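Re-run requested by the PI after the first attempt was lost when the workstation crashed. Everything re-entered from the original request form. Ligand of interest: zinc ion.
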Amino acid sequence: MNTASAPDRCPRCGAGFACGAAGPGACACSTLTLSAALQAQLRQQFDGCLCLPCLQLLAQAERDATGATA
Ligand SMILES: [Zn+2]
C-alpha cells in the first residue's frame, strides 16, 4: 500500500506539503498573488503544486525582478 493517500510533495524542494485541492482548507497558493506569467512558468517547469515556501520565494523573486527595473 504505497500508493494509498500519498502526501503532496513539492517538486522543487522535495518538502512535503498539503495542497488545498486535496484537503478541506483553501490551497496555500490561493493566499499568494502569482502573476499569470509566473503560473504558466511553474506549470511548464513543475508537475503540480509547489509548497508554500517555494511559492512565496518565487513570487517575491518575480516582484524583485519586475519591480527593480521600474
Ligand atoms: Zn517547495
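Saved to the shared folder this time. Residues 30-70 form one domain.
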